[in-house]
Fold this protein.
Amino acid sequence: MKTLVIHPKDSSTDFLKPIYQHLPDTTVVTGGVFKDEIIDLIMQHDRVIMLGHGTPYGLLSMNQFPGYSWNIIDHNMVPFLRRTENIFIWCNADQFVKRHQLKGLYSGMFISETSEATYCKVEATQDQVDISNHLFSYLLGAQLMIHPDLDRAHQIVGAQYSILAESNNVAAYNSERWFING
């Protein structure tokens, strides 16, 4: 399976790298390409993993993509994403996925920073946020290596991540915002 990873360069989301760093036959794009090049890349791959900061309207470009200071993945990409297997991990990706009736693994409002925990009224230390971030990324990356089937990966990641949720408020919050549809 050929995998395209779109992960705008941003040190605050480097913790997501374990999701894809060991996947075979993977193209990683962190910036420097235009949207038409992204479309061409999507068309050449079977799976697209989109990671970083985002909104209900798409994956933020973090000023890493020429000509696009706002979203690199937005409504214009929907027709192309309908033909691939997808993983959408950014805050409020669920609203984007539902609005456009897309399929795949996706997150809702996912706490990855203490400021987001405060915004969501979740008491959390930096250590709790870091542990949650790193465990989630590690689990998903490992499962994609072992079980490329998204349903199975979702099930196993959810079960293992929920163990941390018993003692970590961030993981508890995020566990309720980890979805799949297919």
DSSP finds seven helices and nine strands in the chain. The domain at 3-181 is CATH 3.40.50 (Rossmann fold).
